Amino acid sequence: MRVVLKEGVSLMVIPTKQFKTNRIAINLIAPLTASNLTKRLLLATLLETCCKKFSSQKAISDELARMYGASFEISSARKGNSHVLSIVFDCVNEKFLKSKEDLLEQGFSFLMEILFKPLADGSTFTFDEEFARQKRNLTAYFESIKDNKQLYAVLSLQNLFFNEEKQSLPSFGNCKELEQITLQDLYQYYLECLSKDKVEIIISGDLSITKGETLAKKLSFAPRKLAETSPFYYQQSYPLRRREERQPVAQGKLNLGFSLPVYRTDPLYYAVLVFDGLFGGLPLSKLFMNVREKSHLAYYASSSYDSFRGMMMVKTGLDSENKELAFKIIMQQLEEIKNGKITTIEIDDTKKALINEYLSGLDSQASVVRRAFTNTLAGENVTASVWIKKIQAVTLTEIQSVAKQTTLQAIYFLRKE
Amino acid sequence: MKKIDYPFFNESLFQTDLENGLKVNLLPKRGFHKTYGILSVDFGSNDTSFIPKNKKDFKVFPAGSAHFLEHKLFEKEDYDAFDLFSHFGADLNAFTSYTKTSFLFSTTANVKDNLNTLLDFVQRPYFSERSVEKEKQIIAQEIKMYDDDVDWQLYSGIVRNLYPHLPLSYDIAGSVASVNKITVADLYENYGTFYQPSNMNLFVAGAIDAAETLDWIKENQDRKYFEPAFVVQRANLKDLSAKEKVISYRQNYFVTSRPKVALGMRGLDPLPKGRAGLKYELALQLFFYLLLGESSSDYQQLYNTGIIDDSFDYGIEVERGFHFASFSGDTDKPQEFKEKIAGLIMSAVTKIAGRENEFRLAKREFIGRQFRAMNTLELIADQYEGKLFDNATLFDKAGLMQQLNFEDVLDAGRHFVSEEGFSVYELFPKEEV
């Protein structure tokens, strides 16, 4: 159940006895802008390393170890038109421990210190050394991306596919921006996040809703006015874009970007899930079977659908000389779905796999919390039984209709030198 | 069927050995939707030299045979196990490690059908000339993908230093050349030797009733004929390595933006038998956590002086026939990286001797981690090592952890660390041409 604690600050408590742990997620949501991507990543990284009470990474690690190996992480991510900083904490349900400490309450106190009492003097953060070090580390991370060819190829396609910088840049920003950020800028931006971002708090575990509310109120977020914005990103279509790069790699990468303007809250959303599963999203998909298994053209071939950005991406790893043939077969598979050349068994098996994935997710506390958040962000509340019914109700005609809405927009190819 | 209660964790495990020798572990988990089943064979990429079934002499098989066999079991004359699992709504997977081959499914429906599918496709081999040739191309692609993976190259490099010329130094998948040598007859010979029920175990965890699940398994096994069990004679890694020394240093060049360094320590001491071996592994985990874990003062110092960063990691591998530790990271200061960390490892026992308070904190951390692992069916089942640790489960492991004291940790370090077991492997960025 979701309750509004203050204007712009909400709490959802998901009581369960299934897990041996309790989990807290505090999500800070801001409208996506290109210039904030890097700042938010740097902020996430730094808030994770120190605060007044725990002034070093060691002090934080020790405190987490003391709380029986509690885990704590701040991550930053782009979701459609939003940017999300997630502060996630989880700890053992103290009922299993011999010493009866209230770990969940201690967790909230810890998060309070981290979020609201950083090392700062009122006009700037005061952790110069840590700041310089984390900047160096992030620079090194940015540099290392070109060593991870799968990721590099995904980022390159994204760059080619999206019109606006806030979507085409990597979700974690870039080196140039990073260099320019000062400690003072970051402090000002931190204050802005704390006072203006939309706040969604989620707690899953062995606790009552009342206890959840009492705990969440410990976090001193002030009420805030939020601007009405759509969580989804839309873009105009354009003539096909191609980019090819040569590098000394053993395996080539061919990635394709399709626009698929069906979004999470659209009635055809469930049809897209089935379509994507059939096409390349699942291990039994047409891409896997035909590009990998039957013709042995690629080691991997899969598709993925972004329901907040109306995009579908196809990823393959192959011998460079197989590119043309692989492309042909990929497009053929899509054509077959458009023409309804799919058996009832294929559709049923795909639905079963999607339902299996969905129900399996209920056995992971992290995934339960993540889903609850994604639902909230999209502004809906879909229960497990409704979700399953909607998947089961998807028809062949609907699958064809969403397949026909895909438009190939961008082709990125990383070729062996 | 034996019921083992773990009241401290609020769990109960059911354990039994079937007549054909298959060991079965069942863990019903209340509130779970999913069932996870994993069938493991005590046979991995290290086992390339053994006496095949009905033969008298040792025979050496091409590197990568276990992995190839794992791939090939899915495809049958008249069906593909893949399709059957999909039809019954399950996810499936398989993996091969140095010492183990595992086949697994995960499902929220049709547990009985999926269990039957798992047992049947693994227990009924079918290999044809044509499909074996086809598979060679797929595996070549898989090997090539690893060829581009710099972190995998670093890891393989240090393992090769620690165990030169032993099967451990080959890639689990073998090389394109060794895979090309594999024949249908090789696969049947490997299969016949290792895939006997007495050399396998089945672990099922999740939304199950133990008695009902055991009935299904028995029903399935009773339908099949199995030849009498025999004990496989494998070449002993210890014998193979008796004359062999660790290569203390090697370097290489690779397409990477920053230098990467790996340090390794091969355990030259014998691994204690049974659960004592598991306790030893836990003690080593704590030992290196105290030395180089994120909370340790030395880690902090190395981190703050820019010698290591978040890419730094270490791991301890304890498997049948070998145990080693490896430490690796990206660094702009490779010289300092290897000197400082080598220095720490070599003087580890003295370094840690005064850290009893840190040990108490670390123990809390590790206890918490084990509770967290109990949330995940895969972690519970995958951590089961069968014979190696005398059938200990994650819950036994958590029990051992709670008993562990500071002296155990120091002792483990004393036995493990040695000059002769130590090695360094470095990868430097290739100059752009």
Automatic annotation (TrEMBL), chain A:
**InterPro entries, A to Z:** Metalloenz_LuxS/M16 (IPR011249), MPP/UQCRC_Complex (IPR050361), Peptidase_M16_C (IPR007863)
GO MF terms here are:
metal ion binding
The organism's place on the tree of life at top rank: Bacteria
- In this chain the Peptidase M16 C-terminal domain maps to 181-354
Which NCBIfam families does this chain map to?
YfmF_fam (NF047422)
Q: What is this protein called?
A: Peptidase
- What is the species of this protein? Liquorilactobacillus oeni DSM 19972
TrEMBL record, chain B:
Q: Where is the Peptidase M16 N-terminal domain?
A: 63-162
What Pfam families does this protein's entry cite?
Answer: Peptidase_M16 (PF00675), Peptidase_M16_C (PF05193)
State the superkingdom.
Bacteria
An annotated Gene Ontology molecular function: metal ion binding
Which InterPro entries does the annotation name? Metalloenz_LuxS/M16, MPP/UQCRC_Complex, Pept_M16_N, Peptidase_M16_C
Give every Peptidase M16 C-terminal domain span. Answer: 181-344
Q: What is this protein called?
A: Peptidase
